Amino acid sequence: MSGYKESGPCCYNLLYPSAIMPPMGLYGWIMIYLVQHLGPGTECHKCSMSSWLIIDEFIYPANWVGDQTILYNQVKKAELQRSLDPPPLTNGRSPSRPSNISGPVAAFGPPGSNGELNVSVIVSPVPQDFSIEAFGGPKDVGEVVLRRIARTKRNPDISATLIDAALREDTVTNVKYYKLEFRVESPSFRRHNVAVCCVRDGKLYTLNAQAPESAWRAVQNEFFAMADSFSLVIDV
User: Fold this and answer.
1) What CATH number is associated with residue 203?
2) Domain range holding 74?
3) Cystine design at 75: which of 14, 60, 115, 164 (Cβ 3.0–4.6 Å)?
4) Which of 232, 222, 95, 99 is nearest to 168 (CA)?
5) Per-residue pLDDT tens digits for 179-205
6) Backbone phi, psi, residue 143, to 5°
7) What's the CA gap between 218 and 203, in Å, rounded?
8) 3-state secondary structure 31-51
9) Which of 210, 225, 195, 226 has the alpha carbon at shortest distance from 118?
10) 202, HSE (Cβ side, Cα atoms, 13 Å)
11) What residues contact 19, with CB distance under 8 A and at least 6 apart?
């Protein structure tokens, strides 16, 4: 299966490069496919994904690259030191099944990036009845995320500040997207993040774009464009 990379017991992840659509200004374009190889109305007992085709899509700067091994390792190394990605939202509960497909399904950054400037999409399993709305409005959701960042044990000196929070709703797919802009600081670094999270069929999807605070002015338009373009498309 040329072009496919196995990401689970029976699921495949396919990344299309920006060339499949005309470039939009400074941006490229990507679609991320999580394809279930099952018949209609069935569910996989290994990875608990339905037979629907779920598509993540978002745009990213055309000069950014996505190395599925090197960039992931760079992001992971940076996050082990700083742990600033929005932590999983679980309504105080543990996921009901192992996170066998949790982790980045796509990551992009400038050539030669050290992981400090990048955008990634993370998919995490959550209970089927999980609801982001249970935390309240967009600002309430943002405060929950920031409190969890501030409480991280590996970074006791981290402070997080919510700058903006907004809700975007797709009435066709009935998916709500929570966009959060926040700043995270410690004695050794300052970082600016824009994140979007949504839930569908027992999966929490999080797009997180992050940059050193010193680079924020140069990338803020790209970050907002990426966040606003992030969406799930459900096909049967």
Assistant:
1) 3.40.1000.10
2) 65-228
3) 115
4) 232
5) 999 999 988 889 999 999 999 888 888
6) -65, -35
7) 33
8) EEEEEECCCCCCECCCCCCEC
9) 210
10) 17
11) none
